[in-house]
Amino acid sequence: MTDEHDYHSPRLDARDAAGALDVARQARARIAARAATPWWYPPAYGVGVGGLVAGLALPDRWVPISAAACMLLLLGAYALWRRQSGLHVFGWRAGRTRTIAVGIGVATALAGALAIALRDRYPDGRGPLVCGVLLGLIAARASAAWDRAWRAELLEEPE
Amino acid sequence: MTELWLDPVIHAPVRLQICALLSATDEAEFSVVREETRVSDSVLSKHIRQLEEAGYVRVRKATVASRQRTWLALTRPGSRALTTYFRTLKRLAAMVPDADA
Q1: What distance in Å separates the CA atoms of residue B17 and residue A31, rounded to the nearest whole number?
Q2: Do residues A122 and B50 lie in contact, with contact meaning Cβ atoms separated by under 8 Å?
Q3: Count of CB atoms situated within 10 Å of the CB of A37
Q4: What global pTM score does this model have?
Q5: Residue B99: what pLDDT?
Q6: Is the predicted ipTM greater than 0.85, yes or no?
Q7: CATH of domain B8-87
Q8: Distances in whole angstroms, Cα of residue A48 to Cα of each of A52, A95, A149, B5
Q9: Nearest to B100 by CA among A124, A10, A13
């Protein structure tokens, strides 16, 4: 399968077709190998997401500040990974990872709602703090699971 | 030989690798694609231009810390064309036992 020949005459036999599929498969596998998120990413993601909810334990005027700090942490962690890997992947991308992304969104909404309810019940702030810590642990694990699911997809037959 | 049609824009090995790499991400840096395809800047640029002219790849330039970075992405038509291309290849590849007979 030569470059020039195939550009002008895109016909090939079954063996060439299997070879071309293999070329594509290997290219995607190389991306999967280089795209593994670093060890610090899931914990940073967990702290960022969990912090959004745990921040509700703070006095009212500090809540937006802590939320902004958590958003900065999340964006900063992603920007650093993108810079290191040279890749950009949307968390909401189609595929098996979408289920995990939806799960993180639902867990965050539920933890946020529960934290607000507990905040009124326990003014010392332990309610939102516990919700935030639990959500952070879930988010960190979900982040690692998202990464594994994405890379597993890359190793499958290209579609 | 078979009469099944394969998109000539994608079919060249380097362009096939570029499309396969980009299909794995939303965007990839030019330098990453160059490393993974193991071709020179000029060769890669030539193939990217062909893909861009076909509307299969989008090129975006961004300056970060006074350094210009080029990001590449597969467009929606490019993604559709690649899917069709893979389907055709799979149909062809399934004929291997017959070819050996």
Answers
A1: 11
A2: no
A3: 21
A4: 0.84
A5: 46
A6: no
A7: 1.10.10.10
A8: 6, 24, 21, 50
A9: A13
Helix (H) or strand (E) holding B11: helix B8-11
* B53 contact A CB<8A: no
Separation of alpha carbons A3 and A37, rounded Å: 34
Helix axes A41-54, A63-85, angle to 10 degrees: 160
Question: Nearest 5°: phi and psi at B61?
Answer: -105, 135
Say which amino acid occupies A132: G
User: Is residue A3 situated within a structural domain?
Assistant: no
DSSP bridge partners of A87: B28
Nearest CB neighbour to A17, from listed B8, B36, B92: B92
Note the pLDDT tens digit of each residue in A7-53. Answer: 334 567 777 888 899 999 999 999 998 888 899 999 999 999 999 99
Q: Which of B29, B36, B96 has its CB closest to that of A27?
A: B36
For A:70-109, CB contacts with B below 8 A are 83, 85-90, 93
Residue B93 has pLDDT above 50, yes or no: yes
- Total number of domains in chain A: 1
Name the token pair of B82.
Answer: 């690649």
| B71 to A88: CB separation less than 8 angstroms, yes or no | yes
Domain-embedded: residue A17: yes
**Average pLDDT, stretch A78-85?**
93
Looking at chain A, list the stretches that DSSP marks H as alpha helix, in order from N- to C-terminal side. 3-8, 14-34, 41-54, 63-85, 97-121, 126-154
Residue A4 within a domain: no
Sorted by sequence, the CB contacts under 8 Å of residue A96 that are 6+ apart come out as A149, A152, A153
Residue indicated by tokens 């071709």: B39
Give the pLDDT confidence of A131-157 residue by residue, as tens digits. 999 999 999 999 999 999 999 999 987
